[in-house]
Specification:
With 135 residues, the protein is α/β, with parallel strands linked by helices. It has a single domain, classed as STAS domain (Transcription Regulator spoIIAA). It is built from four helices and six strands, in the order E-E-E-H-E-H-E-H-E-H.
């Protein structure tokens, strides 16, 4: 059952629980005005006991450096709680932002939330973040 966590004129965000993951779906621009809302919502979910997150960006038409910064900030918090994070449904434009910032290799990016939730989360998967672990 999807639960709304942010609902205002510029953004909506909700989450659902799937296969051990908290799938946070963002709908709206992820920028200087909305990024703090996402940060606060994820921190609240962490305080409520959620540890393993998928950030679904499929309905994010625009993301700037502040949006990227909030992803880094929540990643640090999730890591402190021995959780994990996957990014899903990233558009070509937003993927380019990950590329230009050099952060693409630091995240597990999946084509969809369905793909991201196929395997259950593993505790401490961010232990080597921001550098990917060697396979």
């Amino acid at each position: 059952m999807r639960t709304n966590i942010i609902r205002n004129e510029s953004m909506m965000a909700s989450y659902d629980l799937v296969n051990g993951w908290t799938v946070v779906e963002v709908d709206g621009d992820l920028d200087a005005h909305t990024s703090p809302l996402i940060r606060e919502a994820v921190i609240k979910l962490l305080e409520d006991g959620h540890r393993h997150f998928i950030l679904d960006l499929g309905f994010v038409p625009f993301m700037d450096s502040m949006g990227l910064g909030v992803i880094v900030a929540v990643t640090k918090r999730i890591r402190e709680h021995e959780g994990s994070l996957r990014i899903a449904s990233v558009s070509g434009r937003i993927l380019k932002l990950f590329d230009l910032s050099g952060m693409r290799e630091s995240y597990e990016i999946c084509h969809s939330s369905e793909e991201a939730t196929r395997s259950a989360p593993s505790r401490g998967s961010l232990v080597h973040w921001p550098h990917p672990s060697s396979s």
